[in-house]
Amino acid sequence: MPEFPLSDPLPAAPGGQGRAHVSDRPRYLVWLQGDAGWARRQAAALLAARGAQQVLWVGTEAPRPFEAVAAPRVQRWLGRETDAVVFDACAGFNPNAFGQSVGTVRAGGVLILLSPPAERWCHFADPEQQNLAVLPYGACDVGHRFIRHLVRVLQADTQVFCLLQDPPASPAAGHFTAIEPLSQALYIGHPGTPAVSDRSHAAQLVAPFRSLDQQHAVADILQGLEDAVPLVLTADRGRGKSAALGLAAAQWLERHGGEVLVTAPGLGALEALFERVQALLPGGELKAGAYRHALGSVRYLAPERLLHGDTAGEVLLVDEAAAIPAPVLARLLARFRRILFASTVHGYEGTGRGFAVRFRRELTRRAPGWRALSMEQPVRWSAKDPLEQLSFRLLLLDAEPAAAARVRTLAPAQLSYQRLERDELLRQPKLLEQLFGLLVLAHYRTTPGDLRILLDSPNLGIWIASAEGRVAGALLVVEEGGLPADLAGAIHDGYRRPAGHLIPQALIGQDGLMAAAPLRCLRVMRIATHPALERRGIASTLLTGLKGWAQGEGVDYLGTCFGISADLLGFWRHNGYAAIRLGTVKDPVGGTFAGILAQPLSRAGATLVAAARQRLHASLLHQLPAQLAELEAQLVLALLPCTEVALSSAERMELETFARHNRAYESCEPALWKLCAGGPEQWQQAGLSLAEQELLVRKVLQRQSWEAIALTRKGGRRALVRQLRESAGRLLCAPAMGMMNERSAGVQRSG
């Protein structure tokens, strides 16, 4: 096995203080408060004093020799290490970029935050505000609560070093007025904050591992895979989790050869994994997401491909499992005997806590012998690192909902439902933590950027269910619609895609429904119930309260958009929402199609929803044999609207001959399609069973082959045709079909 260095060395500290181990030195935040030009010059001087070589300067401009990196491009630095980061908040504070930046700073490094003076920053025209403004609002309408939250946390942290352009007469502890004493203080650290060594047992550490935690995790992974026991590995950022998966994959190939499959929300998330595989097994070839070596291969497949490929029985490593919907994970669990799910617990790209709560319950039900593994020891910085802990508080990465034991005792009758004024979130930090913690738990894609949206977006509203200071449920809605005619025309013609207004833009730009432009809509963006109180009607009560408030405000319709699944669709239909649009591009991670549902509140809203459902009926019938050929029959039955069908006398005669006699299916397929186009409500009125309805969907509407259908049903083609004859006969005899035929005949006679 090749030898690898356990860490990268640090240069000697000024004054001959010697070489500290990379993970033994804490990281700190330096806060430079003043005018933008002054702050940038001071940052450059501090970097020069520290002799920093690898520097990430986040902002729009930087003094020489540094190069500014725009906030959206910081993600490209993930996986790299820096001696220092300069984060220029004078150019805008992007929460996601800040979190990503923190993850690049190696032990002993520093993050330098530039901002206006604290009291001025709380009212500063932050350039980032323009990204939170949605028509008809402008940047001036965006709140300042998020920055006020940052200032409060920074000022309360005794481990933050401050350099002020205009210091008070008596500076507080930790405040500096010149670069030189600040630079020296950074090497010494704050009193009472000793560096915490991660290498107290370094003698036991074996290369190529970078921590004992990582070494033990790889051993446990290999043992679990040998035993064919499902594994769940959780860790915070910087613990070497993805590298541990790569080391385990390489060692598995050394022992067994063959193929190790890996998956994640995207191939980019597996860069560290493949780096470790290549380092441990040199001489192979990495190409198109697969590393092929004489001993075997490590190959990436998207989650959706894994579900439909002939890959049962292989080893599967799932990284960033929290970003993959739980139903997909459950199907992977059923398909692979040797499987590991790894997830980041607190992350700036999303969170693993919802995964930890919900999917573990599914694991316990399906595989009671599963094993939980964790990694807590950082590999690139010290334990209890001041910068990591500060970033958690700034971005609420470790926010938790109310304790389950305290919430479980609440009766639904105790709960009060109210529209929350967001200033209350700053007055009650615990309320903010509970609310954001609940949202994080409910949705795997919650990021630090969502915290700023929650606090400051002018088009956002919050409803909560709570009792005794504990949040039991939450609802986030955004205002949409009310678009001017010229903008609506540009959207219709494909020239404009303004920020926000998801539902009106889809109805105008994709379905051509210009009537959506002036109407007011409230789109439910997030809805969450505390796991300890699920299935108590809390979410439905929140929706009922929203509906009553929206009617009083003159809103025309309510809407929502999500990846369509049977359980979610059932919940929304139960609450009065009907499908009005379905996308045709399948999510490669979740394997779902995005759908829009709506509930009308006004006469104009009802007219729009009816027109959208009519359009949905036509588009579904057209797309089911092609783009939507893989849409589950159960979902088609729930989505396809009902409409009248008028059969001609010739079509009816064809169908009667097929149903009562022995006419071939193919000879009357167009008439059968027309008969079934009325939709599932008519099929149910004719008394067709669920299995008979699903057969109509798969064969008549989706035009699947006899062989594909026979794989999941008893009998071959002859039995399937017999079932179709019986269904056609009952549909022809249905009262609704008879009345429609009479109307059709009347039209023909009058013609």
Automatic annotation (TrEMBL):
Keywords: Acyltransferase, ATP-binding, Cytoplasm, Nucleotide-binding, RNA-binding, Transferase, tRNA processing, tRNA-binding. It comes from Marinobacterium rhizophilum. SUPFAM superfamilies: Acyl-CoA N-acyltransferases (Nat) (SSF55729), P-loop containing nucleoside triphosphate hydrolases (SSF52540). It is found in: Cytoplasm. Its EC number is 2.3.1.193. It is an enzyme of class 2 (transferase). Its main location: cytoplasm. HAMAP family: tRNA_acetyltr_TmcA. Residues 415-602 form the N-acetyltransferase domain. Belongs to the TmcA family. This is tRNA(Met) cytidine acetyltransferase TmcA.
